[in-house]
Every structure is written in C-alpha cells, then in structure tokens.
Amino acid sequence: MSQRTTTPLISHSGQVLSRAVTFQFALDLNSEQRVLFAKCAGARRFTMNHHLARVKENLEVRSTEREVLSASGDTCEPSTPSLSWSGFSFINEFNAWKNGASEDSPVNEDGTRGLAWRHELPGDVFECASVDAARALENFSASRRGERSGAAVGFPRFQAKGKVTPSFRLRNRATSGTAPSCHPIRFSDPAHLRLPRFGQVKLFGPTRKVRRMIEAGRFHIYSATLTQRAGRWTVSLTGVAAQLHQDERSRTNRHAVPVGVDRGIISLCVAADANGVLTQSFEGVKTLKQAQAKLKVANQALARTTPGSKGRQRARGQLAKTHRKVVNTRRYLVHQASSALVDQCQILVIEDLNVAGMVRNRHLARSISDAAMGELSRQLLYKARWHGVEVRVADRFFPSSKTCSGCGEVRNDLDLSTRTYSCGTCGLVIGRDLNAAINLARWQPKEYSPSTLLDPTRVPLLSTA
Ligand SMILES: [Zn+2]
How far apart are CA 42 and CA 250, in angstroms? Predict the structure, then answer.
C-alpha cells in the first residue's frame, strides 16, 4: 500500500485516518539483530543497484542503437524495447530474478538457481528497495521532462557501501479495519516492537502516546524504516492518524491578527503582531552554541588523527555522536517554540528562507539561526495544518529587518552585528528581531493564497477531504 493514499484509511474503531504522522525511537539491538539489520541494509543497496544497472544498460543500448539508426538516416525506434520503470514491474522482475525464475537469474555452485541468501531476510526488504529505485528513477525522469521544480536531478547514484546511510524499510501489511493486535508490526509491550521476521526489538524512550493512539484506532502504521546513524539504529514508524479534535482545530482563544515570526540571533525566534503586541522570544541559542562548540572540538580532534588509523575511526564516531546531539537539541528546542506558536496564534507570517544561500555560512551565530529557522518553518508548516492555523510566507525580497517599523524607512546599511535598530528618520530605537517580527506581521500577500511556497517535503501530504 502506498503512503500517499488519497482515500483515508478507516481504523478498526471506525476512525478516519488522514493525517501523516511519524514516530521515531532509538533501538537497543542485540548482536544477532545488529548483524541481521546490517544484512538488510546491504540487501537494500544490492537491490537498488540491480535495478539501476539494468536501467542504465538499457538506456545505453538504446542510445547506441539510435545513433546507428540516425547515422544511416533511419528515423525508426531502436529495436531494444525500453524497460518499464514502475515500482510494480521492478518488484516482479526482482522476485523472478532472485527466485531463479528469470533467464538471467544467478546460478549457484550446487547448480540451483536464484539468489542464495534470499531466504535469510524478509522479502519486504527487497520489495521496498525496488520501489525506492523506481521512485529515484521517477524523480530523475520528471526532472528531465522539466516537470520537477528545484535543482536538476541526475541519474540516481549507485548505492556504495560506506557512502550511503544504512537503512531499510518493512511494511505493515494489515488489512484495513483489522485490530492492531493482528498487525505484523506492533508493540508487544511498552519497551518492545514486533517486526515481521525479526521478532521483538527493544526500544528506548516512552512509547505510551503512540501505543494509546494505536489501541484507540487513532494511528495506523504503514511502514517501519530502520536507519543507522552514528552507530545507532533507529526506527521511524510512518503512518496515518486521526485529525485532532475539532476544538483543537478551531479554537477561538488564539491571537486573531497575523503574528510575525523572525529568526533571532540572541534568542531562537521572536514573535510579534503588527502593533508589537504578543512579543514572545524563545530562548535556547546559548544551548545550541555550546553544542556547536563541542562539534568544533570533535572536528579538530578528527583532523589530528592519521587516515586509516583506529584513532581516526574513534574520532569519527565521536564527531557523528556530537553531530547527532546538536541536531536533536535543536529539534527539541524548536519543537517547544513551534508548539507554543500554533497554540497561541491563528495566522503566522514567516520569511521565505533562501535555502541555497544558507548552506555555506561561516558566521556561527548566523548559521545557528539559519538552521533553527529552517527547522522551525518545517515544524510550523505541518503543525499549523494539524491545528487549522494559517501560515503565510513573506517573499524572499521583503526587507523585514531593514525596514523601520515606526515610519517605513528602509535602511540598507544594517549589518548582522547591529543588535538594535535605530531609525534616523523618526528616531525609533527597537530590538532588531522585534522590529523584523513586527514588519513580518504587517506583510501583505500580493495575491492571497495560503502558503505553499515552502514545501513540507518530509511530511507527505494526505488528502483531508
Ligand atoms: Zn523610522
């Protein structure tokens, strides 16, 4: 079943599930499970590469044939047919190939045909990898046809061991409406998740919320993605949940006028309405700075080690761990801010971030605020949808920090180190972030449309009709 279902799922308790939700937990695996997980990640790479190689070869053969034909003045199509790139045909092709039913199936030493180690792993690993290969190719072909916005996507890269994040996916193949206790992926107790073919896997952290949602039929797991980052395996349970309660979606006690949210450099972000009321600043930058400083130390330690040595391996592990900590800290702090904002405001105005310009930024304070703001927009967009809050995205060229909120004068000489905005025309002296937040709150969309400028890509859009 696809994640991007357009008809909502009905749970065993009759709930309409249409809100895309993901829960993530760190896993505590035993050594046997670690080996098996690594094998599955390897099988995913293997399967994806199998498809990419087939498609690449097919494209090359056809292109050569076309050249030969055009050299002889012929305009007919190459004789080699093009391959179907659908996930469905990829699954069928790979199943036949690995089970020994296809002409080019591998032949083993004992004369049997088919992939020798196929029974060691859940078949789902191969099928999901086939779907992923098809999806990567679809992105490539949409980009080639000019149907995809953003940077051009090249032919998908081959999955090299050590270069890609080890990961694989399992589906929760349950029929609509069946009780969660019969599902292949389910919680067997508060600390254990049951995965098909793997049995019990131990989880870290509180699972009460997700278990209660599943039991009440308010959340259904579509799939579990297992990923290894910085040496630790995590599981992401992706699925659909019931909409929040109507009271939550149409609350009357929220701030009714637009509230601007600006990136802070001393605080995480500052929120204010057009009159400067509801000034809220969210702290946390200090914590992020400390985490970032540790990252620098870990980076330097890595640089001092010899390539290929045990010490380098250790330093790399330490760096990855520190990095994970920075990301987690940021996510946690930003979650607090985004929840508070959708809780208190009905209309939020944020700036459109120039993501490309954000990537390389040597200014530490700036890069912290960029990263935090990127995460904040992402969270605000999906939480706003859950809670029925509107998010407007001011266009990229709106001079929110350079405009005086007192008289509208635009100062072009404002650099990043200036923490206070003082206006030479009307004499207003105001905090830089607050000034920008007020200007954002006053921003008027030229053509009114609810924000679609920022793409909340990590949250698949589901029909809520
Ligand atoms: Zn002024």
Answer: 47
Share of the chain above pLDDT 90, in %: 38
347 forms bridges with which residues in the sheet?
Answer: 390
pLDDT tens string 191-211 = 999 998 888 999 998 899 999
Report every protein residue that has its C-beta within 5 angstroms of ion ligand 1.
404, 406-407, 409, 423, 425-426, 428
- pTM of the model as a whole: 0.69
Q: Provide the residue ranges of all domains of the chain, joining segments of one domain with +.
A: 9-32+165-242, 35-144, 253-285+339-442
Q: What is the DSSP letter of 413?
A: -
The pair of three-digit structure tokens given for residue 403, joined into one six-digit string: 């405009």
- What fold is seen in the domain 253-285+339-442? Nucleotidyltransferase; domain 5 (3.30.420)
Catalytic residue set: 262, 351, 433
Burial class of residue 145 (count of CB atoms within 10 Å of its CB; 0-12, 13-18, 19+): exposed
Rounded distance from Cα 421 to ligand 1 centre (Å): 9
| Token reading at 382 | 């999906």
Side-by-side strand order, sheet with 390-394:
280-282, 269-273, 259-263, 347-351, 390-394
CA–centroid distance, 413 to ligand 1, in Å, is: 14
Tokens at residue 356, please?
A: 């490309």
Degrees, nearest 5: CA angle 400-402-406 = 85
| pLDDT tens for each residue of 409-420 | 888 887 777 788
